Amino acid sequence: MSATTPAQAEQSAPKHMRAPVPVQTRSERFTSTEVTDFPEVTGREAMWKYTPVARLADLLTGELDGSPYVYDATTASGVSTEWVGREDARIGTAGTPEDRASANAWTHFQQALLVRIAGAEHKEVTLTRSALGGAARAAHTVVEVAEGANATLILQNSGSAHLAENVEFLLGAGADLTVVSVQEWDDDALHVAAHFAELAEGARLKHVAITLGGGVVRLNPSAHLAGARSDAELLGAYFADATQHLEQQVYVHHDGPETRSRVTYKGALQGEGARTVWIGDVLIGPKAVGTDSYEQNRNLVLTDGARADSVPNLEIETGDIVGAGHASATGRFDDEQLFYLQSRGITEEEARRLVVRGFLFEIVQRIGSPALQDRLQAAIEAELTTSVAAAS
Length: 392
Hints:
392 residues, alpha/beta, nine-stranded mixed β-sheet, 7 helices, 18 strands, disordered N terminus, disordered C terminus, SUF_FeS_clus_asmbl_SufBD_core, SUF_FeS_clus_asmbl_SufBD_sf
């Protein structure tokens, strides 16, 4: 009988039981649609070490209600919605779960909500969920954008929720999609989401994540720039209050030639126990010649007792690129800005509000939907009105 080498023994074992091997590149992470393929989450794992996993226990390990839910959708020419079965060929096209929460949602959803978008004329559609309730739930959404289609899709979330979900965006050649995911959940809501986008040749995606509510919100968007000259802009703005945990783990994979990406996330924190996490991964693959990429994260800490973690990562596997870079900064109010405003007769309280307002509005004003921008600006104003920093 021939001896089995340690390497052969490891490869013959189930994937989740193999000895941990350092992941050499971001694209080599283990993926699976089955929750049982992932080990139990301890909070020591690289992708979970910033997350309050105890608060998410029912979404990580428990049974989830994957039945269809109530939603509202505005109408527009060329846009349709319907529930489709798990066997639909489009499901799984844009990505596969990399963590247990995403896999748990994938394991338990019964039907996926399919949103079809067609037609070159720009249209705006709002999909609203406000009655999910407090039971642990799984959801799956597929957004199919036809070749040459142009649209803005607003995903509006509010009310109570204990939700784990996956959302896939399939952009055909030359398609142009702006998607705005707005999280205005109740204070006790739990929301863990993975957004996967697949871009064909010449497709353009603007993905905007605005998070103002919820107890724990972890939204991880990823964009696979598979087609030549595809373009992705990932933007985010978030405002965390006391005990609130808001987390974003962003991944951009440049795969096709002459692709471009820009990632800009900005957040403000106030109150004891307020916590934000931003992790940005950019991978420029060996075929992605001519890539132009840049990512940045900025955080403004308004009070003592708040904490922001920011981790940018950049991997380059080809030397033939236009440019690539990343930046991260976390700080308090700029004393010079406050002094300048106060020297013009503005009170310190109002000066602080103006600084935060301008800091976050830089993201909001890039959405491109005037009505939504106005509403989000009003929501941020409401946060600032109750800000501990404004009253100090």
